[in-house]
Amino acid sequence: RDAENDYRKAAAEKERAASRLLALGVSQAQLKDVANRADATTKMVVRAPRGGVIVERNVTAGQVVSFGQSDTPTNLFVIADLNTMWVLADVYEPDVPKVRLGQVITITPPCCPEERFDGKLTYISDSVDPQTRTVKVRAVVPNRGRMLKAEMFVRATMNTGSSKVLAIPQSAVHVEESQTFVLVEKAKNNYERRPVKIGRDLDGAVEVLEGITAQDRIVSAGSILLKNSGK
């Protein structure tokens, strides 16, 4: 009876393996050839379900693999279509309402700053990163000439419209003992240390969310010297 059970188990295993090979594109003739041999000399072509480029290989020539050989099986090969790429980007929390699916996103690789790749936004995360206060978005970008590479850093820009913000030079902002502040002119040769809440980085300037108004006169050039002399 044990021999009969072993036979049935082996037959079922054979059928499962044959079904998987057929699903991978192996022909019936190849399966028959394998079944008629008692060794592993038969060569068979395993076809990928779609075209692409091999980006990961987990086997080497001559290596023996078998179905169910591991509790955590791995793919023999990973194939990717590199004609289009996913681009992941972070959007600052205040800008999230301005971002929408289908929006055009422009990608610039640091290696080729004169090149531009336009794609469309296909995913916007529903959660905010508690550390960076940003939201993950994903775009699909046609990979012209396959210049974009996997894991490459790129600069992503989107046109979200314009809005008025209060911004000051980065040189006017100071941080001391975990407090961010600026120096505001109260009168001639009289300056006040004013705590502020800073927002986005605006390429040489920073957005100010709280602490000062557009009417306040702040010190930018030489503010470090004034701060040190006031100690």
Features:
231 residues; alpha+beta; Elongation Factor Tu (Ef-tu), domain 3; conserved putative lor/sdh protein from methanococcus maripaludis s2 fold; 5-stranded antiparallel beta sheet; 3-stranded antiparallel beta sheet; 3 helices; 13 strands; elongated
Distance between the termini: 93 Å
What value does the average pLDDT take?
Answer: 82
Total DSSP helices: 3
**What helical percentage do the residues reach?**
10-25%
When the domains are counted, the total is 3
What is the radius of gyration?
Answer: 31 Å
Described by strand count, sense and barrel closure, the largest sheet is: 5 strands, antiparallel
Which parts are unreliable, with pLDDT below 50 for 5 consecutive residues or more?
A: none
Structural class: alpha+beta
Beta-strand content estimate: 25-35%
What does this structure look like?
With 231 residues, this protein is an alpha+beta fold. The protein has three domains: 2-80, no CATH class; 84-158, Elongation Factor Tu (Ef-tu), domain 3; 167-229, conserved putative lor/sdh protein from methanococcus maripaludis s2 fold, CATH 2.40.420. 16% of the residues lie in helices and 33% in strands. It is built from three helices and 13 strands, in the order H-H-E-E-E-E-E-E-E-E-E-E-E-E-E-H. The protein has helices at 2-23, 28-35, 223-229, and strands spanning 53-57, 77-80, 84-92, 104-108, 117-124, 134-142, 155-158, 167-169, 174-176, 179-187, 190-195, 197-201, 205-210. The mean pLDDT is 82.
